[in-house]
Amino acid sequence: MMYNIRGENIEVTPALREYVEKKIGKLERYFDDTDHVHVNVNLKVYNDGQGKIEVTIPIPHLLLRAEERHDDMYAAIDLVTDKLERQIRKHKTKVNRKLRDREKGVKLAAPVPNGAAVAENDEEFEIVRTKHFSLKPMDSEEAILQMNLLGHNFFIFTNAETNRTNIVYRRKDGRYGLIEAN
Fold this sequence. Notes:
Layout: E1 2-8, H1 14-25, E2 38-45, E3 51-59, E4 62-70, H2 73-102, E5 137-138, H3 140-150, E6 154-159, E7 165-170, E8 176-180
Parallel strand pairs: 1-2, 5-6
Antiparallel strand pairs: 2-3, 3-4, 6-7, 7-8
């Protein structure tokens, strides 16, 4: 891993740099090729003495980012490392679940290192219904009438003036909003 460690209102001492690299370096076990992984670390200290650490690790198809505040900078580094590890495991679980579902029962799930348990309450996004329909050219007022007639909270239509896809929706305050696609 290649580290870019910066300090704002704090000097990045060799001991602090070594601790950051040691703790975040433990995440290497989750990556196949760590030679091209760039880790951006930003350390800040505020006037009240509280420290903040921000870590960003851009990898293909995923951006890992975490930040943490604490009175002790070393404790903040520990906390942010834990957050990053949870993000990695959550992402890995989702990817493995998708692969497993595609293969219809063939288990391709990669084991989590050290037998760490992965939380079972990860968010799942399941599409339970798909609709196909033609978009009728109309103006936004007619679309609102159609939406209210159907009893929906939104309505997709083709704007007759611009010939682009638009969406009208009912706002929480009872008024209406319009989304215009580019």
